[in-house]
Amino acid sequence: MKENNKIEKLILILSFVLVIAFPYLTYLFSINKDYKSELSGSEEKVELSFENLDDYILQNFPGRENLIKTKNQLLYSLFDVSPNVNITKIGDTLLSTETINYYLHGLYNVEDEEIDSLARKFNTFKEYCIKNNKKLAIILTPCKARYYEGKFPFVDDIINLYDKKSIDVDKKVQNVEYNAETLKKEIRPVDKLKIKLKEYNINFFDSIDYIDNHKEKFLGGEVPLFYNSGHHWSIYKGNLLGIDFHDYLRKTLDIKIPLLSVKASPSDIAIYPDSDLFDVLNVYEKPNEKFYESVVTYENYNIGETNFLVQGGSFLGALLIPQITVSPFGEVTHIENKSMFMNRYQDLISFDSYDEINNKYNLLKVCKEADVYIFEIHELNVYNATFGLLDYLIEHMGEI
Amino acid sequence: MVFSSPIFLFIFLPLTLICNLLIGLKKNIKYNNICLLFFSIIFYAYGSLKFLPILLISILINYILSIFIDKVEDKKIRYILLVVTVTFNVLLLFVYKYLNLFSGFILGKENATNIILPIGISFYTFQVISYIVDVYRKDVKHSDSIIDFALFAMLFAQLIAGPIVRYKTIERELKYRTVTLDSFSYGIKRFMIGFAKKIIFANTLGKVSDIAFANLNLHYLGKLLTVLVVICYSIQIYLDFSAYSDMAIGIGKMLGFNFEENFNLPFIAKSITEFWKRWHISLSSFFRDYIYIPLGGSRKGIVRTCINLTIVFVLSGFWHGASFNFLFWGLYNAIFIVIERLISYKYKIYIPETIRVIYVFIVWNIGMILFRLENLSDIKLLCEGFINGPAFNMWSREVLSTIYNPYFIIIFFISILYITPLFKNIQNYIYRLKYGFIVVDVMIIFLFVYAIIEMLTTGYNPFIYFRF
Predict the structure, then answer these.
(1) Residue A175 pLDDT more than 50?
(2) Kind and range of the H or E run holding A372
């Protein structure tokens, strides 16, 4: 018995030593030496320094990527949940938690004053464009949750199950009775913005309404508007909508854009960003969906040069259709958050401030030479609609 | 540096253990103490280099004054020296921990002094005060080596999150200690349990409470979520704190020190008074021995006893953080302890144990709201959400998506099980089975490895003692 105890203790100590020595052993035996990180959405690379030693060890721990993927895969397979807290899995569908929050009106209420201020800014810039013979286009884009409403377990079930009369403290105080129906009909920040833009007589392309009015085209067919595994609209449907958006630019703003057509072709892999939500789950398995790529054909190129300066994300990216934006009919500068694509998407520049990129890449010149300014407003982002570029342009209207 | 970090686990701890072992072979404890002091300095300097001089100066001054206190024969001078030394320590704590709060309160602005709280100051100051008072009381002799004294004050195992170790507890071990196979393997086991408890259980519950207590979510919680979240927080604090004590005790064992237990299943207490005898025992006993008893304890009548208890608990609350909510939290505890004392003084009432345990659980959990929320407006928001809100609020989507998750549910129920004696009973039962120890050991190693994976793969690993 005593001997057993001794062996038990020795085994315990040895196990502990092995676990602690694991990173050294892997280094010693050159395991994982050539391992390259395959994680999506991984954190910024930490440089080795005294202050960052802990983070450095954490990030460079041998096989960490596999550990993450294994753990995530286990959570995903065993418990059928998203291993990423920012992504919610509802049935087969992935939705960013932020999107659901927005769609359920839980957060992101925007004050009327803020919406008015945003519309006023656009109005100021619109007047500048008219004076200087330039074009301003605004496009409103929808969030995925809008098209997956029926799948939310918390909309009808929770309200009906627990409390039909009140779902929010403030609203209860105001004696407003809320239920699933009123919730769905409630005016959202993007609706408020539409009203304001119309009041200021600012033209915009409302892709939300447009899709609603062309349900067959965008919500029907084999290719979904949003893949279960993606956050942005599918490349094909985005391109398809892009053709209509181009029509809008031609007819309403008299902008010259080549004619083109798109068709869907089955693809073995998902084209970015069709499965972008799934990709950041960092699991071993692949998204279980039938993906399509978009095949674009052009009808004419020789329509003269038009320079674009655009601000927006992947929703706008699909509308603009990269095949066009890289074609030699004009320059396209695309700003997305703190990144700027220049020279027809050849160069990607990261920046902290507009002044910084102006000093390095003469942003003011780019602004000045632009014929068309396009701004995307995603309905989820109206609450923090800080259109840095718009502010910058207004601030420097005298110089451009 | 914290115990639940890669640098500690993979670099600092193995290096310390190896050096300690190698030097230990020479059988000269002095070198071992120098080695551990060196590593303790590195440990503290890694996260708080600029506060290291404060700690070292404090150690030096206390060491010199303790010699005088011990050696001077004149009672009056000894008493004056005691007052001077304790005042110095209290002043140090006040300046670095509370001055910002009070000056801010007086001047009406936050961060009036911009003084940053040196990590671990509350622990090492109390430890040193206990030593000074013990020397004055002639309970212990002054340390004859500054190395030993410095090691007692800043041994990394208990430096930043306790337990508050008394000099007399480790006095002998500073001069003579051995590390046996038994003690070393027990230390490892205890460390692994603490590590897993912190990373797997405390952090999982902490994630929920952190999201829920974020200002924006407070009044969207509704009734059920408020209750659930407060329970999560309360258990998180217990698991986290006791995990740190486990790790400290485990590291101590690996190095040859025997620290006293700091927690003893507080949630089975049948009164708030008993709860405090089972919760953060080293702090409670510090207040008992160095404040409550010198104030007269329970020897001067019921009124004075109640006043003494109130003083002790208000101070104890305030020790936990430089914010008025901690003061109110201390007062809140004092109220229940005084009421319990008054009732037991006058009446002998029989209340079934289960009801008493539930009473303690409810009182403690409500108190945790005061512990967590610093602003009155936040507390108001939470209460409004609880009183006026629906049973279940779908607005709290982030909280719901974290809770509505089988992994969380499993962790939550194991945690609930852990705070009861049932967990220990199951463990003891398995131990008694033939080869049961293998099952327990395998489980501990498995949990330890999983905790390391969690630590390496999750960015969330809060250190909740930065305010202490």
Answers:
(1) no
(2) strand A372-378
